[in-house]
Design goal:
Blueprint (H helix, E strand, L loop, with lengths): L3 H5 L2 H16 L66 H4 L4 E13 L12 E15 L3 E16 L3 E16 L4 E14 L2 E18 L4 E14 L12 E13 L4 E14 L7 E14 L3 E14 L5 E15 L3 E12 L27 E13 L4 E14 L11 E15 L4 E14 L11 E13 L1
């Protein structure tokens, strides 16, 4: 029987060749549909952000084009993505239409990474490509909205030392019902099954189920009740004592939002969380976290925010616990009418298998979510910043930067009982070009580096440096 590499040996070169020809050909497509209709994605769950009012927002692909690659111990593309991060974003008639809709979508990306396995040397450069067709079905009714989206992705890494092909299946389902004008209930479920990048024949399955209830008491007061369930099944043959294995996770959050004035909002909340592992029972825990969040609008162009709370985590084995203050701050500013700047800082307790990425929509800083799996908890300080400029209604460019300080104490290392403090960064530039209402192009350059790691001597958490360049095509009918 032929090996996996022999069976797929010709696929990568053909994929790269045809992808390059496709990008060149599409650059000459006329702008026939550029100004027809809305360019906004029909996703009911996309995050709403402040954008310049004088330009048309480039085609949103939050629902359809997110890569679905798993978190892994190696490689700069090591994060899953989910479409459904918000259940209750406002929907317009143009977003969902009045009739059921079937919308095919297609994404192609290819690029080059200088350090595919994130080793200490730059000796493992590789070309990478990803093709992801899918279909989305939406069913809008008077008070009910339902949506199902399926995406299949094939990714390949081809280098002197790295030759890997990966298959990914991603299924998103959402149901939202307006009980009254003031009360809405929503349920979303994301199921991902995939090969682990750069680890052929190792697979995983992750399911994320969210149920939310929103209720507005008055024009100024509203509440949000949320239940989250996640299940992870690790089918890899790796040693389960040195990495995360099968687990189930339950969480309940209650938040109350109050608009003190038109400029000031305060949101106290309380969260309860429990996670159980199948084999590595030293990581089992329950946690509570009261939290207080406030935002203040400094005029029409600037919004600042602050967060403060306390996290208490009790581990199941022994009498060990973690008690930590958690806090953060943010700033959003519109410079002129086309330039948007954001900066954010957070200090928190983090699971080494952090599944929060399922509910985020950012496409960069993937390596920063890859923590040391030997630890049951990590304390992190993270600074993120983005700056985007809208040159025209079709062209957008921006920069991003992310810096993280992660520390794990020796008593939280369930494998070696050694501490590990790490410093990492990832910065880059990105650009997007909307050809017409159905087609858009994107380009990205990123530079990443892990400056320090106490686990350098074992080789599992090495320092690294990498450069990555990618470009791609998004088609949404």
């Amino acid at each position: 029987m032929k090996s996996r590499r022999e069976r797929f040996g010709k696929v990568p070169s053909q994929l790269l060749l045809w992808g390059s020809l496709l990008l060149v050909a599409l650059s000459f497509i006329p702008y026939t549909f550029a100004d027809q209709g809305s360019t906004k994605s029909p996703s009911p769950t996309s995050v709403q952000q402040q954008k310049p009012t004088v330009v048309v927002q480039p085609t949103s692909t939050a629902l359809l084009n997110q890569p679905t690659q798993p978190q892994s111990s190696s490689g700069p593309d090591n994060k899953w993505y989910s479409s459904f991060s918000k259940l209750f974003s406002e929907l317009s008639a143009e977003d969902v239409g009045a009739k059921p809709r079937i919308r095919p979508h297609f994404v192609f990306n290819q690029g080059f990474v200088s350090n595919a396995n994130l080793g200490s040397s730059q000796a493992d450069a590789a070309w990478q490509a990803r093709i992801a067709p899918g279909i989305s079905i939406s069913l809008p009714f008077d008070r009910l909205f339902a949506m199902v989206d399926y995406t299949y992705a094939f990714s390949t890494f081809q280098g002197r030392e790295t030759n890997s092909n990966n298959n990914t299946h991603n299924l998103d389902m959402l149901l939202r019902y307006d009980i009254t004008d003031a009360t809405t209930i929503g349920v979303s479920n994301n199921i991902q099954w995939s090969d682990i990048p750069l680890q052929p024949n190792d697979t995983f399955m992750l399911e994320s189920l969210v149920t939310e209830l929103n209720h507005r008491f008055t024009n100024k007061v509203s509440s949000n009740s949320k239940y989250t369930f996640q299940y992870f099944n690790d089918r890899s043959r790796s040693d389960t004592t040195s990495r995360e294995d099968d687990f189930s996770d339950h969480g309940v959050t209650e938040a109350l939002s109050y608009d003190v004035t038109r400029a000031i909002n305060i949101t106290p909340s309380f969260a309860w969380h429990i996670r159980d592992f199948k084999r590595v029972r030293q990581k089992d825990y329950w946690q509570i976290a009261p939290y207080f969040d406030t935002t203040y609008k400094l005029g029409s162009k600037t919004t600042v925010g602050g967060r403060f709370g306390w996290a208490f985590r009790q581990f199941r084995e022994g009498d060990d616990h973690e008690s930590e203050l958690i806090y953060g701050a943010s700033l959003n500013h519109l410079l002129g009418r086309k330039f948007v700047w954001n900066v954010n800082y957070d200090k928190r307790l983090t699971d080494t298998y952090d599944t929060d990425f399922v509910y985020r929509e950012d496409e960069e800083t993937k390596t920063l979510d890859n923590y040391d799996h030997n630890f049951r908890v990590i304390k992190t300080h993270r600074i993120t910043t983005t700056a985007d400029y809208y040159f025209t209604e079709r062209i957008k460019g921006g920069v991003f930067g992310n810096f993280q300080f992660a520390s794990g104490e020796k008593e939280d290392n369930v494998v070696t009982r050694k501490k590990n403090h790490e410093k990492e960064m990832e910065v880059g530039v990105r650009a997007g070009y909307r050809i017409n209402r159905f087609l858009s192009l994107n380009m990205l350059y990123s530079f990443g580096r892990r400056f320090s790691s106490n686990d350098e001597e074992t080789g599992s958490r090495r320092t690294f440096t990498y450069h990555k360049v990618t470009g791609g095509l998004n088609i949404q009918l």
